[in-house]
Amino acid sequence: MPTETLIWLIPLPPLLAFFLILLFTRKNNALSHTVGVAAAAISWLLGMLVFFAAVGVDHFGENPFRSAIAWLPTGDTFLNIGVMIDPLSAAVLFFVAWTVLMIFIYSIGYHNFGAPKGEHDKPGLPPHGAADHGHHVPSIEPMYARFFAFIALFAFGMFTLVVSDNLLTLFVGWEIMGLCSYLLIGFWYGKPSARDAAKKAFLTTRIGDVFMLLGIVALYSATGTLNFHEILRNENILHLLATTDSGVLGLSAAGLIGLLLFIGTVGKSAQWPLHVWLPDAMEGPTPVSAMIHAATMVSAGVYMVLRMFPLLSAGWHHGDPLTTTMTVMAFIGAFTAIFAATIAVTQNDIKRVLAYSTISQLGFMIAALGIGAYVAAAFHLVTHAFFKALLFLGSGSVIHGMEHGVLHTGDHVDPQNMFNMGGLKKKMPITFWTFLIGGLALSGFPLITSGFWSKDEILADAFANGHFTLLAVLSLAALLTAFYTMRQITLTFFGEPRTKAASHASENKLVMTGPLMVLAVFAIIAGWVGIPEHFPGIGGLLPNWFHDFVGSTLLEHPVAPDFSWVPLGISLGVALGGLGLGYLVYRKAGSEDPLRKPLGPLYTLMENKYYFDELYTKIFVQPAGVIAEKFSYWFLDRKVIDGALHWVAQNSIALGTFFRDRFEGPVISGVADWLAHSTAAIGRLLRKVQTGAVQQYLLVVALVAFGGLFYYLFSVLR
Amino acid sequence: MIPLSWYLILAALLFCIGLYGVLARKNAVAILMSIELMLNAVNINLVAFWRYFTPQTIGGHVFAVIVFVVAAAEVAIGLALIISIYRRRKTVAADEINLMKW
Q1: CB-based contacts of A421, cutoff 8 Å, min separation 6
Q2: Less crowded by CB within 10 Å, the N or C end of chain A?
């Protein structure tokens, strides 16, 4: 089978699985997860075949795998849709296929497959556990099959997005994921917080999506195509777009379209100021968090700007001052990176820390892209996907273990609060080691972990191109990253258990720890494909394959930054410093955060996420409520629309009354009644004739007969 | 030979007597008998015209016989009706059988 056909087939198994599960196998949990995991496995296999086929092609950037069919007739031409795998999407496909498969497998364990049904469990609420031989044990998720249907649809959305060769089908996949994130965040819809989080995520990302759609429309009207290859590898179109004035804020057409598309990413990848939905998305089950944060949705946002990078940076060449659009991206990325990192330091919920960490790391990528460090951003996207999926699944494993402890001891503490944990290292060794690997990768632990290489490359790029402010901001963010990661690991795994539940936490089954181990391997080795050539000591041992491969996506092959000790020193310093500080500060932490006192009000500020939720409530939600009530409801609905309706209604009644009294009554009824009465009167008059005496009738007959006869005789015979 | 008009006058007289009986008698049985008289008046006419105009065929006889048959059938049905009415109303007086009035 040609590779193009395989690419077409990649998104289909999860879609089929979605329908199969929803329509047929819903009642059977084992069959449902088999269908779901099998679909993910087939997509994974196809993805790997395509990926390794792609790796083997020379000059793959110029000759990607492409295949298209005519879809929508647009006047004389057709809008073509199709699939394309170029170096960038091949790299993304690689990590998506792996993480999706791991998440599917992990979900089986996370939702307690094989556990008994809980007596009090209801669909729409997390399982409460079941009594088993006098013990409290975890119970199976009531909507087990439905979960697999939803994540299968989610996977379909992501695969569609990755393999599409044009912005329109990319947007379709993008929106399918938006829907699925809504469904999955609100998976436990019985919890009001989950419902609110689902709505928040959907509405917030929708803001970005509207702008993105505007960008797509603008691009289509400017170029007449949405195909990546035709736009992004066509110097004439890019040059034309870069030199046309859009008439908005002095941006070029390319700049404006890029900016609009970038706002889509801001929503999807939860960048400031649309970051608020992502921490709340933690209301969903943990595999969902991993799905949203690592494998799919937020990666999709960064993937899209990476994909459109030639357009975003049209007119910019290596070494030029940044364009407006790129400056905006660099600013938002860097700001988000530091901003989210500070919040992450003060969060106590193990998943929320990771959520803010994700926002921060995505900020790194956006910032890298903003300064033109294309390969570094793509590299960090790939490594981040692996280690963040690992961390999320690891945190899920911790929560699951804690829930076990909670059920076992009856000690009702929040199983997600890190200050209820501690000492889990011995209880959950596999989770600990894999989480440690993920955490070190996130912190950028030198030389071994993948996160080090990708983060180092971003810093090196910033340094080599002279963006020193950005370098400083990102370095600080990286320091905070290492700090809160170590805080998390120390609070969760080191020291003594702070609660009874934590002391009875237990390691999870292989179906959960297996994916952790696989992802841990990638969290380490994924970085080895992109080691800079001139790195002291180990540079050049492995070729910097990633740079050449992904870099060939662009027309102008990006320049790898020259090696310098400064960024390397910084990344070593911040990683080790942050980790060390984190360990020192939280080594002996009790149930109170040791930073709370020294930081004072600043801590409260960060703990409350800089009051962004409250701010948005004040300036958007409440005014919207007021407008809805005062303007839409009272004025528009009650006064204007109802008023007009009532006016019409009252006048209609008056007119009706008039007609009834003056026309209907006297004229129509009068005539009809008169007719009826006259008919009755005539009838009364004539009925006298009907005597009932048969001989009288006969007499009449005889008289008439004689009358006729005489008439005949006298008139005819005369 | 007796002239045809004598027969016709006899028949007309018989018919008038029958008609009078139908219109004037109260007893339903008597009314039926009067109808027989009227039919027989017709029979006299039929046979008389046959004898005087077409003696070579037997059309007059045939008609007369058919009238007899019809008369017999009519009386059979009429009497049955009268018996039925008598059973219900205990009377055979025509002027008392007046359900079909206003």
Answers
A1: A350, A398, A402, A491, A492, A493, A497, A498, A499, A502, A505
A2: C
Residue A662, φ and ψ in degrees, nearest 5: -100, -20
Instruction: Test A692 with B101 for CB contact under 8 angstroms.
Output: yes
CA dihedral in degrees (A57, A61, A67, A70; nearest 10)? Answer: -170
C-beta atoms of A694 and B94 within 8 A:
yes
Q: Residue A475 pLDDT more than 80?
A: yes
Cα A156 from chain centroid (whole Å): 13
pLDDT in tens, A359-380: 899 998 999 888 888 888 899 9
Report CB contact under 8 Å: B94, A702. no
For residues A311 and A265, give the distance between their C-alpha atoms in angstroms, rounded to a whole number.
Answer: 15
Q: Do the Cβ atoms of A570 and A471 come closer than 8 Å?
A: yes
- Tokens at residue A34, please? 């088999």
Q: Do A693 and B101 touch (CB under 8 A)?
A: yes
Q: Inform me whether the pLDDT recorded for A698 exceeds 90.
A: no
- Answer yes or no: pTM beyond 0.90: no
Interface of B with A in 4-43 (CB under 8 A): 19, 22-24, 31
Mean pLDDT of A120-125: 79
Check pLDDT > 70 for residue A134: no
Which stretches within A128-227 are classed as H helix? 144-163, 167-185, 192-223
Cα A675–A684–B22 angle (5° rounding)?
140
CA distance A227 to A181: 27
Q: What would the pLDDT profile of A401-437 be if each residue is shown by its tens digit?
A: 888 888 888 777 888 888 888 778 888 888 889 999 9
Q: How far is B34 from chain A (nearest CA, A)?
A: 13
Chain B residues in contact with A687 by the CB 8 A cut-off are 102
Asked whether the beta carbons of residue B102 and residue A690 sit closer than 8 angstroms, the reply is yes
Q: What's A348's DSSP letter? A: -
Residue A14: pLDDT band with limits 50, 70, 90: very high
Q: A693, B22: Cβ pair inside 8 Å? A: no
Using a CB–CB cut-off of 8 Å, the residues of A that contact B are 687-688, 690-695, 698-699, 702
3-state SS, residue A332 = helix
Beta strands in A312-452 (DSSP E): none
Tallying the residues shown for chain A, one arrives at 718
Q: Hey, what are A194's tokens?
A: 């989950």
Contact A268/A181 with Cβ under 8 angstroms? no
Do residues A395 and A358 lie in contact, with contact meaning Cβ atoms separated by under 8 Å?
no
Asked if residue A82 lies in contact with residue A67, where contact means CB atoms within 8 angstroms, the answer is yes
Q: Which residue of A has its CA nearest to B96?
A: A693
φ and ψ of A365, to 5 deg = -65, -45
* Mutant choice from A687, A688, A691, A706 vs B, greatest count of B C-beta within 10 A: A691
What is the ipTM, given to two decimal places?
0.81
